[in-house]
Amino acid sequence: MAETARSLKLPRPQDQLAGCAWLPRFAEKARRFLDQQLPFIYRAAFGSRLGIDGAFLRHFSLTIDQFLAAVRRSVDDAALAKWFLAHPTVTSERIAEWNRRAALLGTKGHPGYLTRHLLKWVFYPKSVVTPVNSLFEAIEQDER
Known about the structure:
By secondary structure, the protein is mainly α. It has helices at residues 5-8, 23-34, 40-45, 52-59, 64-73, 77-86, 92-104, 113-123, 126-129, 135-143, and strands at residues 16-17, 20-21.
């Protein structure tokens, strides 16, 4: 039976690891991607420059290959957090800035606004009927 957004049970967008929103969700998606267990709709967007994954990678000056290698090497979230915090571009200030900006992705006047409206038909169909303001909200709504 194929997994649905509801049954996948990924961490919420605002959940944090090492004080950083999106990191636990991105890490879990990466684990499932590496294990070839990520459903198609998630694989289609995984690591995309247009989505939150891409914004996360750009913000911390990481590549998808670096992130996947770190996830592959990390035995658990604590090990991944240690790797992440050791990266030279990851500081408490950058994390705080990301946490503020990430919650605004897809809102009017912020990156991802047009993308959210164009892709909601495929990735966030519930937001077509019941509009939301941000990408985090669209994900939350779609996975409930």
